[in-house]
Structure formats: C-alpha cells, structure tokens
Design a protein that fits this description.
Bound molecules: NADP nicotinamide-adenine-dinucleotide phosphate, D-gluconic acid
Helix content: 25-40%
Number of helices: 7
Radius of gyration: 18 Å
Number of strands: 7
Distance between the termini: 53 Å
Oligomer: single chain
Largest sheet: 7 strands, parallel
CATH architecture: 3-Layer(aba) Sandwich
Strand order of the largest sheet: 3-2-1-4-5-6-7
Number of domains: 1
Structural class: alpha/beta
Length: 267
C-alpha cells in the first residue's frame, strides 16, 4: 500500500529556505522521505550559515546555491545545475520573499518595485524555469507561499499585499494553464508566523510591555497565539505529495483561523 503523503524519491527546490518558513518546510519534506532538498540564497555567508543549520538539524541530503530569484539568467542556470547535479525537480516551493512596512504615500517607487520583483516576479521566473521539465515528465508540484495579505490589506504593506494578491492569481493561472500536464499548482497561506520576517512585530516595547501588534494578532487568532513555522510542514507535505493530486489552484490557509474570525472582543 503506497502512502500518498510520502515524498520518497522526490527532489524539492525550496527558494530562500535558509531559515524561517522555508527551512521548516524543508525539514517536513525530509521527514516525509524527500530524496534531496535544494535551496538558494543571495549571499555566500547566508549559504554557509544555512548549510550549518541543516547539518545541525541532521539533514545531509541538502544542496544550497547562490541565486537571487529575481535574476532570470541565474535562475535558468541554477535549474540546469540542479538537473545536472541532483536530477528532476519534482517539487518547487516559491518561498523566498520580503516585506517592506512603509505607508504607501511615503514608499519610494523602487521600494514598491523591489517587493513586487521578489514576491511576485520571482515566483513567475522560478516556475517558468521548472515547468518545461515538469511538462515533459507530465508530473510536477508547484507551491506558492501566499499570505493573509493575499486576502486582506492593512496599513503600510501595500506592495506586499499587491504581490501576494497577485501570487494567489498566478497560482490559479498556473493551475489553469498546466493542469493538463498533471502539474498541480497550489498556494499555502501562512497566518502570522514567528520568523525573522515578523520579529519586529513581536519585539517587546522599551518599557517591557508587549508589542501592540503582538497583542493585536493574538486577538485576531482564535488560538490566541502566533503560529510556529513547523505548523506549515504538514500542509506543505500534503500539497507536495500525491495525496493532493486532485487539488489544484487552491490556496490552503494555515492561519489558525484568522480569516474565519472577527477577533476577540476587548475586555
Ligand atoms: P524570512 O524569515 O524573511 O526568510 C525569507 C527568506 O527568503 C530568507 O532566506 C531570504 O534570504 C530569502 N530571500 C529574500 N529575498 C530573496 C531573493 N531575492 N532571492 C533569494 N532568496 C531571497 O521570511 P519568512 O517569514 O520565513 O517567510 C517566508 C515566506 O513566507 C515569504 O514569502 C513570506 O512573505 C511568507 N509569509 C510569511 C509569513 C510570516 O508570518 N512569517 C506569513 C505569511 C507568508 P536573505 O537572507 O537573503 O534575505
Ligand atoms: C505584516 C506581516 C504579515 C505576515 C504575513 C501574514 O506586516 O502584516 O509581516 O504580512 O508576514 O504575510 O500572512
């Protein structure tokens, strides 16, 4: 009896998986039997640090490369290198992303563009690079890391929300255009996760009190807490495995119920 959730023999490329959500997804994939994890970062120092972290986590079937997801030539070269050194790319997780928290009317065009380039154009570049081989093999999994901001807005994150909203529709369009090749493209929509990206929103105030945003998010989450990156592992394994072969164009929100909840009434 084949376990539909197994990733045995599968190679997964998780962009930006040096730490945070991508690193947690990589660990979950390895636990599900993945053959090789590939990740990419922008700088040598981050690469060495990440390889150390994988080693400390007991993960040896991992290869790291330097590649900026916005650099089309570098991405195409990386995909060729992965094919030569690792083999097929069975699973692509478009995880790499940044956020800039600046009031829109104060945000420079270049700042807005940088978020769009990394969070939306990057996934387009990486997916376009892996699709030809997946089409040839008539099999593949693409998982785009979306966000609460694929559905909701908030002050200061206009570029990020525009990118993540676009990423939701890019996910649906890849599903529509490539489903006939037995390629499933889905999104995973984390809620508020405790990673370096959200650290500024959780830092205690100078007087030692809780960051107001920390209290706000806990009031907006039914469980009253931030989620851990590891809580994304199971849903990501599901979307990467044959268990989800019938799921396509779906955004699987892993938000602890934020999107379903009006928020805890202040006492
Ligand atoms: P993170 O801790 O900031 O990690 C982001 C990773 O992406 C880092 O390894 C970073 O490497 C890499 N990266 C950034 N720009 C890159 C580029 N141009 N090329 C290659 N790698 C690049 O973020 P995270 O919290 O783990 O978030 C991961 C993904 O989940 C992002 O897409 C984020 O938008 C999304 N997300 C996060 C949350 C949350 O609450 N944390 C919730 C929903 C969605 P460097 O060290 O080079 O910057
Ligand atoms: C923010 C946070 C969020 C999270 C995540 C929510 O400033 O509101 O950074 O954007 O990163 O995307 O799902």
């Amino acid at each position: 009896m084949i376990n539909p959730f197994s990733l045995e023999g599968k190679n997964a490329w998780i962009t930006g998986a040096a730490y945070g959500i991508g690193f947690a997804i990589a660990k979950a994939f390895v636990e599900a039997g993945a053959k090789t994890i590939v990740f990419n970062v922008r700088h040598e120092e981050a690469l060495q640090k990440a390889l150390e972290a994988y080693k400390e986590a007991g993960i040896s079937n991992v290869k790291g490369y330097i590649c900026d997801v916005t650099d089309e030539g570098a991405v195409k070269a990386l995909v060729e290198k992965i094919h030569a050194e690792v083999g097929n790319i069975d699973i692509l997780v478009n995880n790499a992303g940044i956020i800039k928290r600046i009031p829109m009317h104060e945000m420079k065009r270049s700042e807005f563009q940088q978020v769009i380039d990394i969070d939306l154009v990057g996934p387009y570049i990486c997916a376009s690079a892996v699709l030809p081989e997946m089409m040839e093999r008539r099999e593949g999994k693409i998982i785009n890391v979306c966000s609460m901001m694929s559905e909701l807005g908030r002050e200061t994150v206009s570029a990020y929300a525009a990118a993540k909203g676009g990423l939701k529709m890019l996910t649906r369009n890849i599903c529509s255009e490539y489903g006939e090749y037995n390629i499933q493209c889905n999104g995973i929509g984390p809620g508020y996760i405790a990673t370096p990206q959200t650290a500024p929103l959780r830092e205690p105030q100078p007087d030692g009190s809780r960051h107001p945003f920390d209290s706000f998010i806990c009031a907006k989450t039914p469980a009253g807490r931030w989620l851990d990156p590891e809580e994304l592992g199971g849903p990501a394994v599901f979307l990467a495995s044959h268990a989800s072969d019938g799921v396509n164009g779906h955004i699987l929100y892993v938000d602890g119920g934020i999107l379903a909840y009006i928020g805890k009434q202040p006492k």
